[in-house]
What we know:
Blueprint: H1 2-24, H2 29-59, E1 66-70, E2 73-77, H3 82-108, E3 113-121, E4 126-133, E5 144-147, H4 153-168, H5 174-180, H6 192-204, H7 208-214, H8 218-224, H9 234-238, H10 244-247, H11 258-270, H12 273-281, H13 294-308, H14 312-318, H15 323-331, H16 335-347, H17 358-382
Parallel strand pairs: 2-3
Antiparallel strand pairs: 1-2, 3-4, 4-5
Helix pairs in contact: 3-4, 7-8, 11-12, 13-15, 13-16, 14-15
Amino acid sequence: MSDRRLVLSLALVALPILxxxxxAQLPGTASDSMLxxxxxxxxxxxxQSESVDSVRRSIVRRVPPVDVxxxxxxxxxxxxxxxxxxxxxxxxxxxxxxxxGPALRSRMANHVMMVIRDSTRALLGMRPLVALYADTAPRxxxxxxxxxxxxxxxxxxAGLATMVEQIAMxxxxxxxAAWLMVGRIPLRTTSNREQADRYIELVTTESAAVxxxxxxxVASCLDMLGIDSLPGGRLERWYAPEDYRSMLRTVSPPRxxxxxxxxxxxxxxxxxxxxxxxxxxxxxxxxxxxxxSASTRLSFLRDILDAxxxxxxxxxxxxxxxxxxxxxxxxxxxxxxxxTRWLDRVERSRPERMHLPPTLIIASLGWTTAFLAxxxxxxxxWA
Length: 383
């Protein structure tokens, strides 16, 4: 009995040893599956790391080596553009000091602009240019502009000034931004061409409010600029019946109002005055368009800042209240005086008639004579 137990014990001890070589010779399905899983995870990790590197390269641009610094304005560029950028930075820094004040200088200290050589797609290959960025790190920064491949100092300064004006708008609240409708504060002086454009707009705009404003009605000027409101709805305040057809070129009645839509079509296509009246009357008050463009309001804000002088920008963004109250605070004078001066400046900006040089007139007459002679010769030959 003891011998049997001994044999059984030895068998139990030896069984794992005898079975081990047999198991080792079986197909290693578990280890192979784990190895394939490791390879798959490795490939996924490599692909994700490449994607992360690609995103990092696209977001973080290479910072140019040359640092051009003046006051609160700092610009990075390369050696080929450094001299022109320096001259441009000098003029823009003066603009910041003269018009911006401490608030804008504080905002500009958080930005490092860049002026670098770049390229863009063209019809045939790539076209070289110079790109201006409002900051060095973010890809989608506040502003980005382009100039020709060989820009002048004025072109670089204009691009930098535009981005400074965009940064200046960052501190504006939603109410003021909704009134201005332009993503920048006009710090630069309005050019003669811009003033002439404002004159042309006021002359050609078919609006009763604009016509009253041009006669010196300050209340109508404030109303058409969206600063203050006269009694009544927008339609009767801003437009007369003879203005409806022009106004309805930019807006249409609600499409669920089939009668008004049919009248709008007759007004647009057949110049039907009764249709224009019906379509205009169907417009909700908030859909009646402002008579003048955002560029006109930008021009007026430029005069507000000029009137306020030093500190006007700070007061414009720091004060609270209605748009009229904030503009009055920025101008540091009654708003009626600013409106009168602005309107007088616009009226004096009437562009001169285009004068053709004598050489162009002579050349035109010569070509006209040549074409007529050729036509007569060909007609004679056909006869």
